[in-house]
Fold:
Amino acid sequence: MLSRAECFRILELDPKANSYDIENRYTMLIKRYRNQGDPETVKKLEQITLAYDILTGRYVEPEPVDPRLEEVVFGKKKREWQNLWHYGRWPLFGILVGAFFLGYLIYSIATNEPPDFQFVAVGQYASADNTDERVRSYVAGSMEGVETVEFQLIPLSFEQPEPSGAAATGGLDPESEYMYVMKMMTMIAGETIETFICEKSAFDQYAPQGTFSDLTALYERLQDLPEAVRSKIKPLRRALIDVYENPTPGVELPWKTEEDMNQDLSLPIYGLDVSELHLVEGLGLYGKSQILTIGFKADDPAAVEQFLEDWVRDVETMHALQKAYEESLKATAAAKN
Structure:
Protein backbone atom coordinates (compact mmCIF):
# COMPACT_ATOMS: atom_id res chain seq x y z
CA MET A 1 0.00 0.00 0.00
CA LEU A 2 1.21 3.53 -0.76
CA SER A 3 2.46 5.73 2.06
CA ARG A 4 0.71 9.02 2.76
CA ALA A 5 3.73 10.91 1.43
CA GLU A 6 3.49 9.00 -1.86
CA CYS A 7 -0.24 9.70 -2.04
CA PHE A 8 0.30 13.47 -1.62
CA ARG A 9 2.98 13.32 -4.29
CA ILE A 10 0.69 11.51 -6.76
CA LEU A 11 -2.04 14.09 -6.15
CA GLU A 12 0.52 16.88 -6.45
CA LEU A 13 -0.37 18.21 -3.01
CA ASP A 14 1.52 19.55 -0.04
CA PRO A 15 1.65 17.04 2.84
CA LYS A 16 -0.17 19.61 4.97
CA ALA A 17 -3.18 19.71 2.59
CA ASN A 18 -6.58 19.28 4.25
CA SER A 19 -9.54 17.16 3.12
CA TYR A 20 -11.00 20.05 1.15
CA ASP A 21 -7.76 20.35 -0.85
CA ILE A 22 -7.70 16.60 -1.44
CA GLU A 23 -11.28 16.56 -2.79
CA ASN A 24 -10.66 19.52 -5.10
CA ARG A 25 -7.36 18.12 -6.41
CA TYR A 26 -8.87 14.70 -7.06
CA THR A 27 -11.78 16.22 -9.00
CA MET A 28 -9.42 18.37 -11.05
CA LEU A 29 -7.07 15.48 -11.93
CA ILE A 30 -9.95 13.19 -12.92
CA LYS A 31 -11.33 15.86 -15.24
CA ARG A 32 -7.85 16.39 -16.70
CA TYR A 33 -7.18 12.76 -17.59
CA ARG A 34 -10.60 11.13 -18.04
CA ASN A 35 -10.80 11.70 -21.82
CA GLN A 36 -7.38 10.13 -22.44
CA GLY A 37 -7.50 6.40 -23.06
CA ASP A 38 -3.86 5.43 -23.54
CA PRO A 39 -2.47 2.75 -21.20
CA GLU A 40 -0.14 5.15 -19.41
CA THR A 41 -2.96 7.57 -18.57
CA VAL A 42 -5.24 4.72 -17.45
CA LYS A 43 -2.50 3.53 -15.09
CA LYS A 44 -2.04 7.09 -13.81
CA LEU A 45 -5.79 7.40 -13.13
CA GLU A 46 -5.66 4.16 -11.15
CA GLN A 47 -2.80 5.59 -9.06
CA ILE A 48 -4.70 8.86 -8.51
CA THR A 49 -7.82 6.99 -7.37
CA LEU A 50 -5.80 4.71 -5.09
CA ALA A 51 -4.04 7.71 -3.50
CA TYR A 52 -7.36 9.50 -3.03
CA ASP A 53 -8.95 6.43 -1.40
CA ILE A 54 -6.03 6.02 1.00
CA LEU A 55 -6.01 9.67 2.07
CA THR A 56 -9.82 9.75 2.57
CA GLY A 57 -9.99 6.42 4.41
CA ARG A 58 -11.97 4.68 1.67
CA TYR A 59 -9.30 2.16 0.80
CA VAL A 60 -9.88 -1.43 1.89
CA GLU A 61 -6.91 -3.78 1.86
CA PRO A 62 -7.71 -6.71 -0.46
CA GLU A 63 -7.80 -10.12 1.12
CA PRO A 64 -4.80 -12.29 0.29
CA VAL A 65 -5.50 -14.78 -2.47
CA ASP A 66 -5.61 -18.37 -1.29
CA PRO A 67 -3.68 -20.42 -3.88
CA ARG A 68 -6.03 -23.34 -3.28
CA LEU A 69 -8.94 -21.26 -4.62
CA GLU A 70 -7.12 -20.76 -7.91
CA GLU A 71 -7.34 -24.45 -8.70
CA VAL A 72 -9.57 -25.13 -11.73
CA VAL A 73 -12.46 -27.58 -11.25
CA PHE A 74 -14.91 -28.36 -14.09
CA GLY A 75 -13.70 -25.38 -16.08
CA LYS A 76 -13.94 -22.81 -13.27
CA LYS A 77 -11.65 -21.77 -10.44
CA LYS A 78 -12.69 -22.85 -6.97
CA ARG A 79 -13.01 -19.16 -6.07
CA GLU A 80 -15.60 -18.74 -8.85
CA TRP A 81 -17.51 -21.80 -7.65
CA GLN A 82 -17.42 -20.34 -4.14
CA ASN A 83 -18.92 -17.06 -5.37
CA LEU A 84 -21.59 -18.89 -7.34
CA TRP A 85 -22.63 -20.81 -4.24
CA HIS A 86 -22.54 -17.72 -2.01
CA TYR A 87 -24.78 -15.61 -4.26
CA GLY A 88 -26.82 -18.37 -5.88
CA ARG A 89 -27.72 -20.73 -3.07
CA TRP A 90 -30.95 -18.94 -2.10
CA PRO A 91 -32.26 -18.64 -5.68
CA LEU A 92 -31.34 -22.31 -6.13
CA PHE A 93 -33.19 -23.17 -2.93
CA GLY A 94 -36.23 -21.26 -4.21
CA ILE A 95 -36.12 -23.15 -7.52
CA LEU A 96 -35.90 -26.49 -5.70
CA VAL A 97 -38.83 -25.60 -3.43
CA GLY A 98 -40.86 -24.47 -6.45
CA ALA A 99 -40.01 -27.66 -8.35
CA PHE A 100 -40.98 -29.76 -5.32
CA PHE A 101 -44.30 -27.92 -4.95
CA LEU A 102 -45.06 -28.26 -8.67
CA GLY A 103 -44.23 -31.95 -8.55
CA TYR A 104 -46.42 -32.40 -5.49
CA LEU A 105 -49.28 -30.54 -7.21
CA ILE A 106 -48.97 -32.67 -10.35
CA TYR A 107 -48.83 -35.83 -8.24
CA SER A 108 -51.87 -34.75 -6.22
CA ILE A 109 -53.87 -34.02 -9.38
CA ALA A 110 -52.82 -37.32 -10.95
CA THR A 111 -53.58 -39.45 -7.89
CA ASN A 112 -56.44 -37.56 -6.25
CA GLU A 113 -59.80 -39.19 -6.77
CA PRO A 114 -62.43 -36.62 -7.78
CA PRO A 115 -65.53 -36.45 -5.57
CA ASP A 116 -68.67 -38.26 -6.66
CA PHE A 117 -70.65 -35.01 -6.57
CA GLN A 118 -69.54 -31.38 -6.71
CA PHE A 119 -71.94 -28.75 -5.37
CA VAL A 120 -70.93 -25.13 -6.05
CA ALA A 121 -72.68 -21.96 -4.85
CA VAL A 122 -71.77 -18.84 -6.84
CA GLY A 123 -72.78 -15.46 -5.46
CA GLN A 124 -73.00 -13.33 -2.36
CA TYR A 125 -74.37 -16.05 -0.09
CA ALA A 126 -74.18 -16.17 3.67
CA SER A 127 -73.62 -19.67 4.99
CA ALA A 128 -74.20 -21.45 8.26
CA ASP A 129 -71.22 -22.73 10.20
CA ASN A 130 -72.10 -26.31 9.22
CA THR A 131 -73.25 -25.76 5.63
CA ASP A 132 -70.53 -28.04 4.24
CA GLU A 133 -71.65 -30.95 6.38
CA ARG A 134 -75.35 -30.33 5.72
CA VAL A 135 -74.81 -30.28 1.95
CA ARG A 136 -72.68 -33.43 2.04
CA SER A 137 -75.15 -35.25 4.25
CA TYR A 138 -78.21 -34.29 2.21
CA VAL A 139 -76.70 -35.07 -1.21
CA ALA A 140 -75.17 -38.38 -0.11
CA GLY A 141 -78.43 -39.38 1.55
CA SER A 142 -80.47 -38.49 -1.54
CA MET A 143 -78.38 -40.14 -4.26
CA GLU A 144 -77.53 -43.81 -4.42
CA GLY A 145 -73.85 -44.51 -4.95
CA VAL A 146 -72.68 -41.04 -3.94
CA GLU A 147 -70.20 -41.21 -1.08
CA THR A 148 -67.93 -38.19 -1.50
CA VAL A 149 -69.48 -34.74 -1.89
CA GLU A 150 -67.51 -31.51 -2.26
CA PHE A 151 -69.12 -28.16 -1.49
CA GLN A 152 -67.58 -24.84 -2.57
CA LEU A 153 -68.81 -21.29 -2.06
CA ILE A 154 -67.49 -18.74 -4.56
CA PRO A 155 -68.57 -15.22 -3.47
CA LEU A 156 -68.52 -13.82 -7.00
CA SER A 157 -71.22 -11.33 -7.99
CA PHE A 158 -71.76 -9.33 -11.16
CA GLU A 159 -74.42 -6.94 -9.93
CA GLN A 160 -74.22 -3.42 -11.32
CA PRO A 161 -72.73 -0.77 -9.00
CA GLU A 162 -75.19 1.04 -6.79
CA PRO A 163 -75.28 4.85 -6.56
CA SER A 164 -73.45 4.58 -3.25
CA GLY A 165 -70.41 3.32 -5.15
CA ALA A 166 -70.48 -0.32 -4.10
CA ALA A 167 -68.29 -2.55 -6.22
CA ALA A 168 -69.81 -4.49 -9.12
CA THR A 169 -68.51 -7.73 -7.67
CA GLY A 170 -70.22 -7.60 -4.32
CA GLY A 171 -67.52 -5.59 -2.56
CA LEU A 172 -64.59 -7.83 -3.51
CA ASP A 173 -61.22 -6.18 -3.91
CA PRO A 174 -59.71 -6.43 -7.45
CA GLU A 175 -57.26 -9.18 -6.46
CA SER A 176 -59.96 -11.38 -4.93
CA GLU A 177 -62.30 -10.70 -7.84
CA TYR A 178 -59.63 -11.78 -10.33
CA MET A 179 -58.84 -14.88 -8.26
CA TYR A 180 -62.48 -16.00 -8.15
CA VAL A 181 -63.06 -15.28 -11.85
CA MET A 182 -60.02 -17.41 -12.71
CA LYS A 183 -61.19 -20.13 -10.34
CA MET A 184 -64.58 -20.22 -12.05
CA MET A 185 -62.91 -20.42 -15.47
CA THR A 186 -60.75 -23.32 -14.28
CA MET A 187 -63.68 -25.17 -12.72
CA ILE A 188 -65.94 -24.72 -15.73
CA ALA A 189 -63.25 -25.85 -18.18
CA GLY A 190 -61.65 -28.68 -16.24
CA GLU A 191 -63.96 -30.05 -13.56
CA THR A 192 -67.23 -31.96 -13.48
CA ILE A 193 -69.59 -29.76 -11.49
CA GLU A 194 -72.89 -31.49 -10.89
CA THR A 195 -74.89 -28.62 -9.40
CA PHE A 196 -74.45 -24.87 -9.42
CA ILE A 197 -76.56 -22.71 -7.10
CA CYS A 198 -76.24 -19.21 -8.57
CA GLU A 199 -77.38 -15.76 -7.66
CA LYS A 200 -79.05 -14.12 -10.66
CA SER A 201 -76.11 -11.94 -11.70
CA ALA A 202 -73.82 -14.99 -11.80
CA PHE A 203 -76.39 -17.00 -13.74
CA ASP A 204 -76.80 -14.19 -16.28
CA GLN A 205 -73.01 -14.06 -16.65
CA TYR A 206 -72.39 -17.76 -17.24
CA ALA A 207 -75.59 -19.16 -18.78
CA PRO A 208 -74.98 -17.59 -22.24
CA GLN A 209 -71.53 -19.20 -22.24
CA GLY A 210 -73.02 -22.70 -22.29
CA THR A 211 -72.01 -23.46 -18.70
CA PHE A 212 -75.30 -25.13 -17.72
CA SER A 213 -77.39 -28.02 -19.02
CA ASP A 214 -80.93 -27.81 -20.40
CA LEU A 215 -83.54 -28.21 -17.63
CA THR A 216 -86.63 -28.03 -19.83
CA ALA A 217 -87.60 -31.66 -19.18
CA LEU A 218 -87.14 -31.20 -15.43
CA TYR A 219 -89.34 -28.11 -15.39
CA GLU A 220 -92.08 -29.97 -17.25
CA ARG A 221 -92.01 -32.81 -14.71
CA LEU A 222 -92.43 -30.32 -11.88
CA GLN A 223 -95.76 -29.11 -13.26
CA ASP A 224 -97.63 -31.65 -11.12
CA LEU A 225 -96.58 -29.82 -7.94
CA PRO A 226 -99.22 -27.94 -5.95
CA GLU A 227 -99.91 -24.49 -7.35
CA ALA A 228 -98.52 -22.84 -4.20
CA VAL A 229 -95.15 -24.46 -4.90
CA ARG A 230 -95.21 -24.52 -8.70
CA SER A 231 -95.90 -20.79 -8.96
CA LYS A 232 -92.69 -20.04 -7.07
CA ILE A 233 -90.48 -21.86 -9.58
CA LYS A 234 -89.52 -19.60 -12.48
CA PRO A 235 -87.85 -21.03 -15.59
CA LEU A 236 -84.95 -18.94 -16.90
CA ARG A 237 -84.43 -19.28 -20.65
CA ARG A 238 -81.32 -17.93 -22.33
CA ALA A 239 -79.82 -17.72 -25.80
CA LEU A 240 -76.17 -18.70 -26.07
CA ILE A 241 -73.65 -15.97 -26.70
CA ASP A 242 -72.81 -17.13 -30.24
CA VAL A 243 -76.36 -16.16 -31.24
CA TYR A 244 -75.49 -12.57 -30.34
CA GLU A 245 -72.03 -12.64 -31.85
CA ASN A 246 -73.09 -14.28 -35.13
CA PRO A 247 -76.66 -13.15 -35.86
CA THR A 248 -78.34 -14.12 -39.12
CA PRO A 249 -77.70 -11.31 -41.63
CA GLY A 250 -80.74 -9.09 -42.01
CA VAL A 251 -82.58 -10.71 -39.10
CA GLU A 252 -83.13 -8.67 -35.94
CA LEU A 253 -82.80 -10.56 -32.67
CA PRO A 254 -86.26 -10.96 -31.09
CA TRP A 255 -85.14 -10.34 -27.48
CA LYS A 256 -84.61 -6.93 -25.99
CA THR A 257 -84.52 -8.03 -22.36
CA GLU A 258 -83.95 -11.16 -20.32
CA GLU A 259 -87.69 -11.34 -19.67
CA ASP A 260 -88.23 -11.54 -23.44
CA MET A 261 -86.03 -14.65 -23.42
CA ASN A 262 -87.93 -16.16 -20.51
CA GLN A 263 -91.15 -15.84 -22.54
CA ASP A 264 -89.62 -17.43 -25.67
CA LEU A 265 -90.57 -21.11 -25.43
CA SER A 266 -88.15 -21.99 -28.23
CA LEU A 267 -85.18 -21.28 -25.96
CA PRO A 268 -83.86 -23.91 -23.53
CA ILE A 269 -84.29 -23.52 -19.78
CA TYR A 270 -80.84 -23.29 -18.20
CA GLY A 271 -81.91 -22.44 -14.65
CA LEU A 272 -84.81 -22.70 -12.24
CA ASP A 273 -85.27 -19.65 -10.02
CA VAL A 274 -86.43 -21.00 -6.66
CA SER A 275 -85.77 -17.82 -4.65
CA GLU A 276 -89.38 -17.61 -3.47
CA LEU A 277 -89.33 -21.24 -2.35
CA HIS A 278 -86.47 -20.56 0.10
CA LEU A 279 -85.14 -23.98 -0.76
CA VAL A 280 -81.40 -23.62 -0.19
CA GLU A 281 -81.84 -22.12 3.28
CA GLY A 282 -82.60 -25.66 4.40
CA LEU A 283 -78.94 -26.49 3.71
CA GLY A 284 -77.63 -23.35 5.40
CA LEU A 285 -77.25 -20.99 2.42
CA TYR A 286 -78.85 -17.56 2.47
CA GLY A 287 -79.09 -15.26 -0.54
CA LYS A 288 -81.67 -13.01 -2.16
CA SER A 289 -81.65 -14.98 -5.43
CA GLN A 290 -81.31 -18.75 -5.78
CA ILE A 291 -81.13 -20.43 -9.17
CA LEU A 292 -80.71 -24.19 -9.58
CA THR A 293 -78.59 -25.39 -12.49
CA ILE A 294 -76.69 -28.47 -13.67
CA GLY A 295 -73.10 -28.20 -14.92
CA PHE A 296 -72.68 -29.04 -18.59
CA LYS A 297 -69.90 -31.54 -17.75
CA ALA A 298 -71.77 -33.41 -15.00
CA ASP A 299 -70.84 -37.11 -15.07
CA ASP A 300 -74.45 -38.29 -14.87
CA PRO A 301 -76.82 -35.44 -15.86
CA ALA A 302 -79.91 -37.64 -15.54
CA ALA A 303 -79.05 -38.57 -11.95
CA VAL A 304 -78.33 -34.94 -11.07
CA GLU A 305 -81.60 -33.87 -12.67
CA GLN A 306 -83.42 -36.44 -10.56
CA PHE A 307 -81.65 -35.09 -7.47
CA LEU A 308 -82.82 -31.55 -8.22
CA GLU A 309 -86.36 -32.77 -8.79
CA ASP A 310 -86.38 -34.65 -5.48
CA TRP A 311 -84.86 -31.65 -3.74
CA VAL A 312 -87.57 -29.29 -4.99
CA ARG A 313 -90.27 -31.77 -3.99
CA ASP A 314 -88.63 -31.94 -0.55
CA VAL A 315 -89.30 -28.25 0.07
CA GLU A 316 -91.22 -28.85 3.31
CA THR A 317 -88.25 -30.72 4.75
CA MET A 318 -86.01 -27.80 3.76
CA HIS A 319 -88.29 -25.37 5.56
CA ALA A 320 -88.27 -27.57 8.66
CA LEU A 321 -84.47 -27.76 8.62
CA GLN A 322 -84.23 -24.00 8.20
CA LYS A 323 -86.62 -23.41 11.08
CA ALA A 324 -84.77 -25.82 13.36
CA TYR A 325 -81.41 -24.19 12.61
CA GLU A 326 -82.67 -20.66 13.15
CA GLU A 327 -84.39 -21.63 16.40
CA SER A 328 -81.13 -23.19 17.62
CA LEU A 329 -79.36 -19.91 16.88
CA LYS A 330 -81.96 -18.00 18.89
CA ALA A 331 -81.64 -20.44 21.78
CA THR A 332 -77.86 -20.10 21.76
CA ALA A 333 -78.09 -16.31 21.71
CA ALA A 334 -80.62 -16.33 24.56
CA ALA A 335 -78.39 -18.60 26.64
CA LYS A 336 -75.49 -16.18 26.27
CA ASN A 337 -77.64 -13.30 27.47
